[in-house]
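Box 3.1 A note on notation
Throughout this textbook, protein chains are presented in two layers. The first layer is the amino acid sequence; the second is a token string describing backbone geometry. Keep the layers aligned when reading.
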Amino acid sequence: LSPVVNNEKRIKKIVKQVLKNFALYLVDFFRFSKINKDFIKKYVKVKGLNSLGRLIREKKKIIAFTAHLGNYELGAALISLLGYRICAVALPHKDRRITRFFNHQMSLCGVEVVLAGIGIKHCFKALKEGKIVAFVGDRSFSSNGEEVRICGRRCFFPRGPIFLSLRTGAYILPSFLVRERKEKFYKLIFENPISPFEGERKKTEKELIQECALVLEKYIHRYPEQWYMFGKYWLE
């Protein structure tokens, strides 16, 4: 957290809040069977839905880009309950039983799960069918990530969502579900979409990744206590 928060006392306080929020995140995940449209009306404030709606109306392919921040699984579930077809790309767990349980929980809200790596063909098919393909894109778990700068420090981003965007022309829609103390308990936020094109020119992989990184940086600064990055992240 030091690149995000430069006060040692505040870092210690935020670490405690991170653990508390992660526990709440787990509770939410186990309660997916109780999540429905009434839950959205009662507990969720949606911001920027017009960004998603505009892409749908214009028949654009859509990649939802999020992070290990807030509650990303619940965010995908809420998008599904709002009436949008969505499939989420996820890493398989070491224990197959956990993977099956994870997939089952997501299916309760109509979210289709695609396993990272082996499901790339399915992602192409899903975009062609008009489904939203969702990625948690703030950390690369393989050795072929793209180096990027966030909060002034270097880290690796996964290439998957960027590759898919450049190959298919899909727009990247940064999307986050965060906890809020004011008003309702959750806020589902859709940022302005990121086009893979600059005029008629297709952007480079580096350009597109850096644009995503800038959006992520904004949310890390805004919600450091909801960013669940427990492993080594920075390259220096």
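The longest strand covers residues 171-179. The helical segments are 8-30, 37-43, 49-57, 72-81, 96-107, 120-128, 160-168, 205-222.
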